[in-house]
Amino acid sequence: MKTFSISFITLFGTAIPLLAQSHDLLPEMVVNGTRKTQSLTSPDVATARAAIAKIAGGAEVVDAERYLRGRSSTVADTFALSPGVVAQSRFGSDEARLSIRGSGLQRTFHGRGLRVMQDGVPVNYADGSFDMQSLEPTAAIHVDVLRGANAMSYGSATLGGAIDYVSATGLNSPGASVRVEAGSHGYLRAGVSGGFSTGSADLYASFTEQTQQGFRQHADQDNQRFFANFGWRFNDDLETRLYLTAVRTDSELPGNLTKTQLETDPRQAALSNITGDQHRDYDLYRLASRTTYRNGDTTWHLTAGWTYKDLNHPIYQVLDYLSNDFYLGLDATHEMRLFGRPDEIKAGVAYSYGATDTSNYVNVRGHRGAKLSGADLTAINLDTFVENRLSLPENFHFITGASAAHSRRESERTFGNGANYASDFSNFAPRVGLTWEPDQQTTVYANVSGSYEAPSFSESTTVSGPNKAQTATTFELGTRGNRGPVRWDASIYRSNIDDELLTIVPDPSVPTATATINADKTLHQGVELGGEIDLLGQSWLTEADNRLVLRVAWTYGDFRFDNDLTYGDNHIAGLPPHLIRGELTWENKDGWYAGPTFEWVPEKSFIDHRNTYSADPYALVGFKFGQRREEGLSWFIEARNLTDERYAATTGVIENAGGRDSAQFLPGDGRSVYTGLQWRW
To answer: What are the φ/ψ torsions at residue 533 (nearest 5 degrees)?
Structure first.
C-alpha cells in the first residue's frame, strides 16, 4: 500500500501543474465574474458566515486557514479554538472523544451524538455512528459547526448538533498545492491537491498519507485518504457536484492505563492490547452528490450518498464488519413575504438505510480464531423538518420549526446464540427562537428546542436489549458579533434530558450488572465562550499592518444526574467541567505569526458515575511560529507540551470505580515539535 501511495503522490503532483500550464487543455481557466468563483453547491466562507448569522443559537464557521497554521491532523487540531466543541485525542491519533454539549460523552471511539457531514451529506452511518478517520481537514475550505438544535436546518435533531466539512473545489481553490508535515513520535504527513475549472466544469482532488509511531507503544498509524469532487454548472441556476472518497486506515490501539501507570510511564501500552495485537483497521469508499437548483424565490437541494466500509477490528474479540449505507435527502428554501414582512421557510426530508454483516471471532494475537457469533444488522431512518424565519420590526427575527423522525434498528442472528430483535423509535421535536440585531455588528439570540437520538448499534445490542430513544429540551441564550478590536461568540444553555444513553446499573438490587441503557432524567448545562481581541486596539473592520491577538475558547459543562434513585445528583463521568484553549499571537499583514498556545483543565474530571475516582487537572503550554501565504511557500514550526506534562488527554467511563485506581486513563502526548511546509501555485 505504501508503494502505491508514494507513486500516486508523485503522479498526481506531476499531473496537476502540467494541466494547469496547458492552454490547449484548459483554454478557459482564467475567467472573470462571479459565475466561475461562486459555487451553488459549495458555499465560500463569506456565504457560510452570512447563513450562520441567521441562526438563533450557537454556531461557527471555522476557516481552514485557522488550523492550517499548525499541525492539521486530528479533530483536536481542527477544533482547538472552537467554543463548545470538546475534541480530545485518545493517543495523538485521529480517533477521539468528539462532543458538543455532552453529546456521546461516553465515547472515546466511533463517535455518536453529532451529525457529521461532508458538503451537507452525512458521513454518519445509518445507525448514527461515525468515524473520525474518514475526515480530512486539509480537503475542506471551511468547517461549519452548529451546536445543539441549531443544526435543525441541516436536518439534524441530535443533542450535539452538526459539523459540516465543506470541500475545496476547482472554483474556490484553483491551482495546486503540496503540503508536508513532520515531527515528534515518527509523525509524517504528506499531501498533494489541486483544482481547475474549464467552461462549465470544475474538478478538485486531494490525496494525503499519514504515518506515525505515536508517543506510546503499540500506537502506530498508517492512513491514506483520497477526496475528489467534480462540479458541472448547467446554467446560472442549476449545478451538480459529485464526490468520491477513498480511505484506508490502520491503527494500533495502545489501550487504557491506570493513573499510577500513566504517572510512572505514560508511553507504555496496556499488556492485553499488545498480546492481542489490538487494532482498528478499515477500508472505506464513498460516493455522494449534491444538486442545487434555483427557481425564482425557491432553492432546492438534492443530496445522495453511498458508503461501503470493511472493518477488521481485533479487540477483546476480532470484529469483522462489512457495511453498506445509503442516504437520500431533499430540502427547499423559499423566500416570500408574510404579513407584509420578509419571510424565509425551509423544509426537508431524508431517508437513510444501513445494512451491516457482522462476525465475531476469538482473538488469537490479533488474528481470527474460531467464529463465535454472527448477525445481520439493519438501521432505517426517516427524518423531516420545517423551519420558518420571519423578519419583524426593529431588526427582530422570529424562528419557529419542528423535526419529526422515525427510526428502526434490527438484528437477525446468523451464527451462534443470541436473540433477534426489531425496535422502532419515533419523535417530534419543536423549536422556537428569536434573534435581535441592535446594530450591524451584533446579534442577540434565544431559543427553546427539542432534540432526539435513536440508539446506535453499540447501544441497542447490549445485554439489556434495545433502548429507548434519547430526547431533550434545551433552553439557550447568547450573542455573537464584533465591536472594535473584539470579536465574540457566547452561549449559555440548559438541556433537560430524558432517557440519556449511559452505562449505568439497570437494576439497583444487582449493582454488579452494568449496561448501556437509558438513564431516567439527566441535566446538561454550560457556557460556550469564544473570543478574540486585538490587544493593540485596532478594529477588525479595518486592515492592520500588525496585530497582537489573544484568542480563547472556554467550554464549561455541568453534566449530572437529576435526582436519580441510584446516583442522586452526581456528575456524569467522561468530560472535564472546564476546557480552556487559546493562543496569544503577533500577526502581520504579510502572513507572519508567532506566539504561545495553551490548554488548561483546571478541575478534576470523574471517570465513574459514582464519582469516586477522577483524572487530575492539567495545564499545557506550546508555541507557534510561521507564515501563511496565498501563493508560494507557507511554513510553520509548532511546539506542544513544552513542560512535558504527564496528563490524561481523556479517560474511559465506567459505572463505579469504587474509589480505586482503574485502567481508564489515556495519556496525552509528551513534549512534541512539528514543522510543516506548503507550496501553493
So the answer is: -135, 135
Choose among 289, 378, 374: nearest CA to 325. 378
Nearest C-alpha neighbor of 584 from the set 595, 600, 570: 595
Are the C-beta atoms of residues 196 and 19 closer than 8 Å to each other? yes
Residue partners of 500: CB distance under 8 A and separation at least 6? 470, 472, 518, 519, 522, 572
Report how far residue 153's alpha carbon sits from residue 378's, in angstroms, rounded to the nearest whole number.
27
Note whether 453 and 100 are within 8 A (CB): no
**The total number of residues written for the chain in this structure:** 681
Query: To the nearest whole number, what is the mean pLDDT of the chain?
Result: 91
| C-beta separation of 459 from 467 below 8 A | yes
By C-alpha distance, which of 666, 575, 497 is closest to 98?
575
Write down the pLDDT at residue 11: 37
User: Kind and range of the H or E element at 651?
Assistant: strand 648-651
Q: Among 40, 41, 9, 36, which Cα is nearest to 288's?
A: 41
Angle value at C-alpha 537, between 531 and 539, nearest 5 degrees: 75
Element (H, E) at 128: none
pLDDT at 507: 55
Q: Which of 134, 93, 95, 100 is nearest to 117 (CA)?
A: 134
CB atoms within 10 A of CB 157: 29
**Interval 10-49: pLDDT, tens:** 334 433 443 344 333 334 433 333 334 689 999 999 999 9
Compute, in degrees rounded to 10, the torsion defined by CA atoms 569, 575, 580, 585: -170
pLDDT at 12: 42
- Name residues whose C-beta falls within 8 Å of residue 587's C-beta, 6 or more positions apart in sequence: 546, 547, 548, 549, 593
- In this structure, the dihedral spanned by the alpha carbons of residues 261, 262, 265 and 267, taken in order and rounded to 10 degrees, is 120
DSSP state of 270: -
* Whole-angstrom distance, CA of residue 56 vs CA of residue 2: 47
DSSP string of 88-114?
A: EESSSSS-EEEEETTTTTT-SSSB-SS
Q: Could you tell me the maximum CA-CA distance found in the chain, to the nearest angstrom?
A: 79
pLDDT above 90 covers a percentage of the chain that reads: 84
pLDDT tens digits, one per residue of 341-398: 999 999 999 999 999 999 999 999 999 999 999 999 999 999 999 999 999 999 999 9
Please enumerate in sequence order all residues whose Cβ is within 8 A of that of 677, keeping only pairs 6 or more positions apart, or say none.
179, 180, 633, 634, 635
Under 8 Å CB-to-CB from 34, ≥6 apart: which residues? none
Question: What residue type is assigned to position 498 of the chain?
Answer: D
Grid coordinates standing for 508?
A: 439497583
**Angstrom distance (rounded) from CA 447 to CA 400:** 9
Q: How far apart are the C-alpha atoms of 82 and 532, rounded to whole Å?
A: 12
- Please answer whether residues 640 and 70 qualify as being in contact, where contact means their C-beta atoms are separated by less than 8 angstroms: no
In our burial notation (b when 16+ CB lie closer than 10 A, e otherwise), range 25-55 reads ebeebeeeeeebebbbbbbbbeebbeebeeb
Closest by Cα among 473, 480, 487, 472 to 445: 480
Q: How far apart are CA 260 and CA 262, in angstroms?
A: 5
If DSSP codes are grouped into helix, strand and coil, which group holds residue 158?
coil
Q: Which residue carries 481552514 as its cell?
A: 64
Report the number of secondary-structure helices (H) and strands (E) in the chain: 7, 35
pTM tops 0.90, yes or no: yes
How is residue 498 written as a grid cell?
Answer: 430524558
The CATH architecture assigned to 2-680 reads Beta Barrel (2.40)
Q: How many CB atoms lie within 10 A of CB 508?
A: 11
- Check if the beta carbon of residue 251 is closer than 8 Å to that of residue 94: yes
